[in-house]
Structure formats: structure tokens, C-alpha cells
Amino acid sequence: MPSPAAVPKTVFLGMSGGVDSSLSAVLLKEQGYNVVGVYMKNWSKDLPGMKCPWAEDLADAKRVAVKLGIDFRVFDFETEYKQKVVDYMLSEFKAGRTPNPDIMCNQEIKFKLFYETAREQGADLIATGHYARISPHPCLRKAADENKDQTYFLYRISEDALAHTLFPIGDMLKKDVKKLAEEKGLDNAYKKESMGVCFVGEVGMEDFLKEYFEPNPGPIIEIETGHELGTHEGAIFYTIGQRHGLDLGSANKGADAGLPYYVVKKDITKNIVYVSRNLNAEDLWTTELDLEDIIKRTGDALRGPAGSEPKASESDGRYNATAPWDAEGRRPTGPVRIDVRLRHRAPLIPATLEGNKLIFKKEIKRPAAGQSAVFYQGDACIGGGIIKF
Amino acid sequence: MSMIYLDHASATPLSKKAKAAMEPFFADDFFNPSAPYLPAKRVREAYENAKSEIAHTIGAKANDLVMTSGATEATNLAFSVLNASTRGPDALYRPSTPARLSARGAAGPLNAPPLVLVLETEHASVLRTAENYGAGKIKVKPGSGLIDLDNLKSKITKDTVLISVAAANNELGTIQPLAEIAEIIKSERQARLKNKNPRPLYLHSDASAALGLLNINVARMKTDLLTLSSAKIYGPKGVGALYVAHGVKLKPLISGGGQERNLRSGTENVPGAIGFAAAMKETKDHLNSAAKTFENLKTIFKNSLTDELNGEIEPVFLGPKKRQLANFCPVSFPGLDAERLVYKLEEKEVYLSTGAACAASKGEKSHVLKAAGLTDKEIAGSLRISFGRLNDEAKVKTAANLIADAVKEELERLKNA
Which fold has domain B16-285? Predict the structure, then answer.
């Protein structure tokens, strides 16, 4: 953690009202920064039965800011969030893909719009309560708490923003964050963690999408037999690997009765959902993934400018990563050995990146198109790409 | 307990008497009042007695009351007068195309006259309900928030069916001249008789905020529909009632077993009604002394606060000087952020609100203060302070000191920023 200079640097901290960003505020203040708390008001839609509780979150964030005696502002990003995140998400779903709005939110809102707005308003640095670490140069690194690591959601953020970002709790374990927050008198220390995308709230993605897309019934077909087993409400509502909500109860008879059906394939143009009871169904597994829109985080930055070689002792000894490509993402030309994460918190899988293709030694369960494959070497998050059909 | 609670307009603690009165009806006398055996009949009696007691305190009879789950439901039910059918060709009080459709942007005449007129400073339960019927808004006078009677007169048309004005406002504490409003309504009714216009005109009033401080009497106030709430007078929450004058027809919001003269089905909330009645009686017994006590506390508070601030900032006391509920003392510190003051004071166990609780929780500016002509700075810096039984002279003085401290700290912070 870089320490503030004699004249305290001004940090704009994104505060959500949760324990992570609240404790971040405390820590930054203790480190001598001039902290400005910012609540980012993103887009939210009232859905029947659920409301994104942003007003309460804002109040919680402000309460913490006031107790710490720090300035507090609200950045209203509703319009931009709707355009950059929600509309993107809806168009992706429409195209039959399963996008990750959190990744887009970090790329477009938190580490772009928030960063730029904060800088305009006098910030030297920004900070968030993400579980991730930054080594000088800068390099995005996994959090100390492996289980909470959020680099999966951060792999697309710009180098410029990262160079001006602090993750005050990235070195801590979640349980220590909770404990310390309690010691510091943050009474939201036990507040329920928000899960998933804020604007979808607790209503769930399917219900959210149904607000935007009319039901479009089509056949559910068993991939092995070609039998029509039932009717779905629109192929865009289904995700590869999904086994709930198929409503195939009556068709589920015979020798395999009781085994669930999985969505193994979607044909968006013909509006067909293919299912299988066979966990080994060919379409569920693959050894290759085609990627697009690949980001290669500057590898040379890991080594940094001459004479600033990071030492292994700088962290927990695992800091030995060197990205295999240079700042332009050009080097080398041949295949590259990396570790890949296909979902937040999913285990790392060794793979080879060859051009735009990821090649795995063992078969992996095929992720949905539109999801991200994120690259790691050691502790470093060195980029990623979006999975194609 | 060192807490200083200055938000009696938002909630009140259940009084000991009300609590004791309710106690037997949770587990011992739990019977359904509609059941045929004797113990149940006794519960029925207790329930009807409670209703009578509530009714008597407002100069009405038990049969004039419909018990509800609170003021919001009572107000919603009151507005159903617009849906209730009458005999003859004028079966529904609607222009040829429902105004509610045009209000939602669907097909409908653009200039459909509003059936309802509500004061622009009404509580959300009135405003939102009225919106369903395409309501017109009656203006208030700047500063005081008192109804502009000329504006009311100019807005009444031959189509107006319902006028809704709260007995007292829940943010500024403004006491509205209901008797004068009733006079205006009376002359409009007479004009309609003369013109052979069969359309009725009703007066609804939300008395939730006023009930604990004013002598609410339906005969004197001449309201046809009156919303009552137990929660603001040290009774249980989730209990309210609607007074319905003879001949006023409503359409039930909740159908079922036909309780409350078919206007509000569902097994009666017996302990709730009994707690409400006990709270109501206690309130009525102390009405005069309460007003005196709170006027005194208000004076002490205002003086202490002004003294403590020592000219560093001039507190702006909001609302009317004379026609304000005795326990209301809204105040603004223009240029400051009242929300920050609330969180600062919460640490000292001083609890108060900014604007109306409902508006604050949605992050919107108070529509009441806006309507009363306050500047954005005054609104942003305004605290809603309402005294009550949890306060005494010492607490009010301490509160004034602590508020002044918080205000000074904020002034200091702004100076350094």
C-alpha cells in the first residue's frame, strides 16, 4: 500500500453502504488520505415484488462517511449505466449470449466514468472495496482471500485507472474485514451482502428479462433423439447448463426418470432449446474455447521500468508472475501456458492460449457464450476474453 | 435510557395503558368475534365497545367507523367513494372516459375535469391514491403551508366529487381551517341543488398527524370522511379507522366475510382496536395539558438552540407561527446537509428526521417544503422535529445543545473543505 505524501492525497472512494467499502473508508482515513466518499447511483428498475434498495444503501454509505467526518457525494450515473451496462446486457441476451454485467459495470462505470469524474473533481486516486490487489507498475493481482478474489470481474479495467486505484482491503481475509469493521464500530458489519447484479436485485435474471422480452414459445428438443419434450418461453431466457425451470416433469419418464434435463444448446434463430439428461452429452463438454474481444493486461508492467523488479518477498512469495506478452499484447507469437478462470470463484484450469483459442488438456464443461474466460499467471490477472459460440 | 427522541410525528411508543388493555386479547381472549359461543361473544362486545370509544372521542358512533390496517388503508378506502355506484344514470362518478386512464397516458380526454382535489402538501397516501383518479392540486400559501382558499374555490367544478385536506400537515404541522373549507363546500352543494346537478361533493380529511393534539370532532369539522391512525397517538401500529358519514357510499377494497358492514372483510384485529381505543381515551383526556406542555417545550427548544448557535448560523423555524401543531418544530439550517446532522446526532442518541420519513427514504426532496416555497438550500438543511411524551424540559435543552454542536461541527467542516 503506497503511503500518502506530506500533502495528503485525495482519494475518492466508491461507497456502497456495505462492510467492504465502509472498512476501506476507515483504513484510508487512518492511512492519512483525504477521503471523499462517493455513492454511485446506478440504474435501477422497480420490478414487481422487488426493488433495488439503493436508497437504503446510500443512507448506509452516507452514515459511515459522516461518522468518519469525511466528505460525501452522490454521482448520478443512471443514464450512463442504463446505456453502457443494461442495454449492453439486453442486446447480448437478445443475441443468445449470457453476458456478465458486473464485468461491464467495472469496465465502463466504476473504473471509467467514476474514475474520470473523480479526477475532474480533484481526486488524485480512486478506491473501491474490491477484493483484489495491485502491485506497482501496475499489475492486477488476486486478493489475499482466494475465496473472495474479484479479479474475475476486473480483468477489463484500464491500465490508467488501475494505476490510480487503491484496493484497501485486498490484502485482508473477509473474516478479518468483518472483525475489524466490528471493532471500528461499523454497524453494517453484518449487513447482508448484495448478491449479483444490483439492478436485477433479488428478482433474478429470468424475471428481469421477462420485463423486456415478450414470451416467444418454442420447442424443447432432446438432442440425442430429436424428440420434442415440451415448450419453452423463449430461447433467450435459457442458459447452457441450466437445469431448472424447464418444466419437463411429464416428459421425464422411462429408464432415466428422475434424472434432470440440462440445456446443452440453443438455436436463437430457430428459437429451439436443446436438452439432454446425459451429463456426458457432447455439447456440454469441450477441450477448446474460441474467444473474442481479448484483453491482454500489460505484461511488461509486471517487470516494470528498469531497476524496479519486484521481489518475491514483496508479498506471500507467490509473486513471481510475468505476463507472457508485452504492452501491445504482441509477444510472443506462439502458444502460451496460462491458468484460466471461467466463472467468479471457479477453480483455475491450466490451458494454452493459441491466438484466439483456449485449449484445455482435459474436457471442461462448456461455459455459455458471452461469459468471460480470465487469464492468470501465478497471482497476476493478465487479461481475458469473451467466449464465442 | 439516555436516548432523546424527537420524531413523534413518525412513530410513538405504545402507551402502558394501551399495552395493558391489549394484553388479554392476544392469548386469553383470542376468540374470533364472529364465533357463536359465549367467550367469543364477549370478545365481540369488547371489540364493539372499543369501536364505540374511538367513535365517541370524535363525536361519532361505532357504526360510522370502518376499522382498517392503518391510515393509508383508511384513506384508500375513503377514495373508493369515487368508484362507488349510486342509483340512476350517474352510476359512476366519472367523466365519459375515466380520468385515471388519461392520467396514465392511455387513451382519454386530455381535459377531463379532475374528480378529486387534494392539497399539494398531502401525505403520500393521499397524493398517490388521488393520482389514480387524475386529481387536481390545491395550492398552499408560501411559508405557512396553509391552504389557499381562493385557489380551492377556483378549482372546484361541477364535476368535483371529493376534496381532501389533512387536518394538520405531517411535516410543517400546519393546522388547516377545515371549518372554512366545509363552508365553501356547503355553498357549492347549495349551488348544485339549485342547478339540479345531482353529483355529490364530499370532504375527506386525514387526521393522522392532528389526532394527538387537536380536538377532532366530525360534527364540528363537517367532514364526510376522516382518516384516523392509532400509531401516532401511542397506540399500536397497523391500526387505523375511517369515519364514514351517513349516506356516503364506498366500495370495499377487501372482499371476504363481510366484516365492518361489508366494507372491510377479514377477522377483526381485536387487540389492535382495543389498544387504539385506550390510546385514544388517554390522548383525549390530556389534550389540553399536552398542548400547553409542548408549546412550552417548543419555546425552550427554540431559545436554547438560538442561544447555543450564538449567531454562527441563524436557524430558520419553519411553518406557520400561529396555526402549527404544538409539538411540531421543523427547523432549517440553510447551506447545511440535514442528513449529515441526522447521522451525527444518531451517535449521540438523538433521533430526528429530515423532511418526511417517506420522502427521505426515497431520496427525494420533500414535496411539502417545496410547495411551501422553501429554497433548495432551506429544504436540504431542514430537520423535522416533533416532541412528545418521551420529552421533557431537560431533554429538550440537551437536544438543543447537541444539535447546535453538530451544526457547528458541520460549519467547521465546510469552512475547511
Answer: Aspartate Aminotransferase; domain 2 (3.40.640)
